[in-house]
Amino acid sequence: MARAVVFDVGNVLYDWNPRFLYERLIGDDRALDAFLRDVATKEWHFQHDAGRPFAETSAELAAAHPQHAALIAAWGPRFGEQLGGMLPGMRELVCELEAAGVPLYAITNFSGEFWPSFRDREADVFDRFDDIVVSGDELLTKPDPAIYRLALERFGLRAEDTLFVDDREDNVAGAQSVGMGAVVFTDAATLRGDLARYGILAAPAL
């Protein structure tokens, strides 16, 4: 039976979508789609999660796409605008876990530059967590098994005493490879069932 829950942040706790920011900056839907598909892609952004400075990545991308330099420059300073509110039911679930005395942790692929302001913005949620490992600070990213081992050591947890929750199957597989219990997140109701199956919360009423 798992005794601690380790969350992913983006698309598990919070809705992350670069469109939230760029639909405010690009009025034409086709141009917006093209910018996010061909220029400021999630693959490009993953460099930030891995620890590369935004000053470097943005300069490289702007050199390749000078016509979009101003839009590219907005990515870092306004990254928080890419993150919406908590996903439905997740605030209530986090509060319920805390009230039940379940230790809460997180492992997030997130830029070390962008994380502090977002963490401060959502302090009412993240203050409930015992610790959070941020990939950009560690220069390790999920699903590399090394980041899970580092997190377990830092959290003072045994792998078998944890349940890891992530929206990506490869990240879940990475956690399982080091012995953690792990489930793929789809929505709060399904996760509540998973938590009951692992003996962490009472089974939902039928």
Automatic annotation (TrEMBL):
Q: Entry's Gene3D superfamilies?
A: HAD superfamily/HAD-like
Top-level taxonomic group: Bacteria
PANTHER family according to UniProt:
ALPHA-D-GLUCOSE 1-PHOSPHATE PHOSPHATASE, FLAVIN MONONUCLEOTIDE HYDROLASE 1, CHLOROPLATIC
What name does UniProt use for this protein? HAD family phosphatase
Q: Which organism is it from?
A: Sphingomonas glacialis
